[in-house]
Amino acid sequence: MKICAITMVYRDHWALGQWYRHFARQLGAEHLYVVAHGADPEIARICPGASILTIPRDDLSRFDTRRGDMLNAFQNGLNQIYDWVIRTDADELICLDPERFDGFADFFARQRRSAVFSLGLNLGERAEDATLQGDEPVLNYRQSAVFTGNYSKAWAVRNRIGLKAHGVQLRPARVESFPFIMPRGVYLVHLKYANSAALARAAEHRREVADQPGLGNPGQAWLNPGTDSRRFFKQFEALPELPWDEAEPRAYADISTEPVRETGPGVVRARRDTPRIRTRLPDWFSAL
């Protein structure tokens, strides 16, 4: 079973370090691919052993659309070599429950379809949490999280399936019949709100991209990152907290059914719900 992971990054060095450590341990650094959006020698230091491809950053127009098309093309090329390609943003980690799967090779050996989704979690920094000083593994220091349909994303593909809008990209004729597969015990942990210092540093770069005129750019969360962050943390603190063994089944039952099927753009994705449950990650996350 040959598996690789690919991401794209610009200056989000803290998140990239988390991504690299996590997937290098799981897959081996030689099977990691980092698309650098603009020259950045720091990436090679953070990701020794990974393959780094630098692309120009002189035109940010239609950023989301062009980035997605390009990464789909890279991903399709890797699918000629690898059985499965994992693709996430640099601030996203895929975590497999060790009681259900013995790593990624075991997980993918059980899959019979061409794309898989995950149950999404926004990991959050709370007021009582210690400030992260450097490259400590974030899952050792942050345990509070909220389940989210928005980040219950498609994250691994084979057979030339594209990714778009947090889902899979298909020919319109395939949208209604394409299987929506979200295996139990697979989690996408989104790190954007887990380190407030790194979040503040990334805000300027996100605003630069979203401020470009025209269509095909990221939305309000990038255009007004401060407002987005304040809204998240206010909601995060106000949510009731339930134990994992109670919260996880409820979130899975809610998010893993009735996906959105959009024939126009040819997308199948999870429903974007309003987060309702905060929980604490079980101890096995910190051992990954």
Structure description:
With 288 residues, this protein is α/β, with parallel strands linked by helices. 30% of the residues lie in helices and 22% in strands. The protein contains 8 helices and 15 strands. It has helices at residues 13-27, 42-46, 63-78, 104-109, 196-210, 220-223, 225-238, 244-255, and strands at 3-9, 32-37, 51-55, 84-87, 92-96, 115-117, 119-123, 144-148, 154-157, 162-164, 167-169, 186-190, 260-262, 267-269, 278-280. The strands form 3 sheets. Strands 3-2-1-4-9-6 form a 6-stranded mixed sheet, sandwiched between helices. Strand 2 (32-37), helix 2 and strand 3 form a beta-alpha-beta unit. 39% of the residues are buried. The mean pLDDT is 92.
Structural descriptors:
single chain, 288 residues, alpha/beta, 6-stranded mixed sheet, 5-stranded mixed sheet, 15 strands, globular
Assign the structural class, choosing from mainly alpha, mainly beta, alpha/beta, alpha+beta, or little secondary structure. alpha/beta
Described by its quaternary structure, the protein is single chain
Average pLDDT reading: 92
- Terminus-to-terminus distance: 20 Å
Can you write the helix and strand succession as a string?
Answer: EHEHEHEEHEEEEEEEHHHHEEE
Most strands sheet: 6 strands, mixed
**Number of beta-strand segments:** 15
Helix percent band: 25-40%
Radius of gyration: 18 Å
> Could you give the order of strands across the largest sheet?
3-2-1-4-9-6
